[in-house]
Amino acid sequence: MILDHLGFSPGVLDGRQGKSLVAALKGFQEQQGLPMTGEMDQNTLRALYPHRAWRPTQTIALTPEMLAGPYVNPMPKDPQVQAKLPALGYRSIMEKLGEMFHTTPAVLLELNSPTTRLAPGSKVVFPNAVPASRSYDPKLPEAWRTTLANLNINAEQPVGAKIVVDKSDEVLRVLDKDGKLVAQFMATMGSEHDPLPIGTWKILGPAYNPPFHYNPDLFWDAKASAKAALLPPGPNGPVGVVWLDLSKPHYGIHGTPEPSTIGRAESHGCIRLTNWDAARLALMVKSGTPAVFQK
After folding, report:
1. Cα distances (Å, whole numbers) of residue 202 to 66, 195, 234, 252, 289
2. What letter would DSSP give residue 218?
3. d(CA 3, CA 238)
4. I need a labelling partner for 282 at 20 to 30 A (CA). Which of 6, 48, 254, 291 fits?
5. Angle at which helices 275-284 and 142-150 pack, to 10 degrees?
C-alpha cells in the first residue's frame, strides 16, 4: 500500500507476494539507490519507515455517491450490443468499490464479510488508497476530475519527462528531467500476434473517458462476421477510463476493464494499465512526452 502511494504500483492491492510486488519493490529500491533485490530487506524497510503513518487499511462509511450507478450486469460481449448501451459502466457496486480502492471485489470480501451490507452509512474496510489531495487542476474537464476522485487519484503527481516501457520485466517507468525514476506501473504489453512496437515514440495527447472505435480489421482474433462499432465510454470499455495516444498509429497507453489481468495476460500491442494507474500516469505526462519501448 505504501509503495502504491509512493508511485510504485503493484497494480491490484491484494497483500500477496508475487512478481507484481517484486517489480514494485525493485522500482522503489532503484529510486532510493538501494540494491534491487525485490525483497522486503532491512535497507528497504528503513527507506519505507518514514511513511509508516500510512496504515494498510482504512474503515470508511459508505456514502450514496460511492454506491451510485448506473450498473451494467450482465455486460454483453458483442461489440454491436455494447454499442447500443449509454455507457460501459461498472457491473456491480463491488466492482466500483474495488477500483475506487485499487483492488478487486475478492479482496474486499476477504477484508470484510459476504454479509457486509452495502448501504449508505455501512462501515467497510478498504485498502488505504485514500489520496492526500483531490484538488485537481480546474482546467481539466469536470467529468475527468470526477473520474480521478472516484479512483482515489492524488492530485499531486511528479512531472514525467520520459516514459520507458520495458517488455523484459513488464513495467512502465516514468523518469523526470534528470533521468531519475519517479514512478513505475505494472503493464501488459503486446503478444505474439501484436508485438510491442519497439522504438521511440511520443505521446500525442490524452482522451479522457473515451469512446472506443472498434475496427475488426485491427484485431487478429476478430470473428469474420464482426462489424465496426463505436462503443460508449466507461470503465469497462476496452481502453478503460483514459487513452494516451501515441505517435505510432493505432497504438496507445490505456486502462482496462480487467485490472487483475495486468502483467498476467497479453494485449493487442498497446500498453495496458489498471484504470487507476492509467489515470495517474495521465497527470504525469503531456503532449510531446517521449515514450521509449524496449525489450
Report:
1. 36, 18, 25, 10, 6
2. G
3. 27
4. 48
5. 130
In the 3-class helix/strand/coil scheme, how is 105-143 assigned residue by residue?
Answer: HHHHHHHCCCCCCCCCCCEEEEECCCCCCCCCCCCCCHH
Q: Which candidate, 243, 218, 213, places its Cα nearest to that of 231? A: 213
pLDDT tens series, the chain, 295 aa: 999 999 999 999 998 989 999 999 999 999 999 999 999 999 999 999 999 999 999 999 999 999 999 999 999 999 999 999 999 999 999 999 999 999 999 999 999 999 999 999 999 999 999 999 999 999 999 999 999 999 999 999 999 999 999 888 899 999 999 999 999 999 999 666 678 899 999 999 999 999 999 887 766 556 767 788 999 999 999 999 999 999 999 899 999 999 999 976 555 558 999 999 999 999 999 999 999 999 8
Inter-residue contact 3 to 44 (CB < 8 Å): no
